[in-house]
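General statements about sequence and structure are easier to judge against a single worked case. Part of our work consisted of pairing the sequence of a single chain with a tokenised description of its backbone. The amino acid sequence and the backbone structure tokens for this protein are reproduced below.

***
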Amino acid sequence: MTRTRENDDSTNTQTTNNDTNTTMTRPKSDRTKTLENIESIKINIDDAVSALRKNCQNESRRGKLVIRVTPPYDDASEAHTHFSEKGRHYSGNPPHPLHIDPEAIVAGDYRGFGAYTWKSEYDFPCKIEHKSIYEKDAGDDVSWEEWWQQSIEIWEREIRNAIKQTESISFPHPDDLNSMISIPVEIEDE
């Protein structure tokens, strides 16, 4: 039987194998240290909604908007919108900034769209579907632009309500694929 125990100093992980009576100590990954050092994340709701909306509307091949938390990590680390280019990675000594997909804030889970907490009403409105509904149901007194804008406002209201309900975001533990690290979030609604 193998048992893993986190040490109090948060610098390494101890693995004990009872079958061979051996103990190995391996350093924690830099990502684990980063996630463990963040007490909570302050997220502006407007930044999260805006980033999600832009990502949904513009399929960029270069990258996407993320919510970024930068070191040094303290009691409540503030997050800001950041454009993350595909294939770009931080160099130099850690700790590195933490990138959070905006949909992860909605779902409370790093998987965002793939999380079991993701609901269909969080999906950005499909312009083709809404155009078809508009043509069937809208009266002459409503323009397509007004109809489309109202669809986006309804979506945004659902997203804001979901974000306000998010108390934490779960991330996979880099050193133990069977566990998660949950970081509390503070949603700032101005």
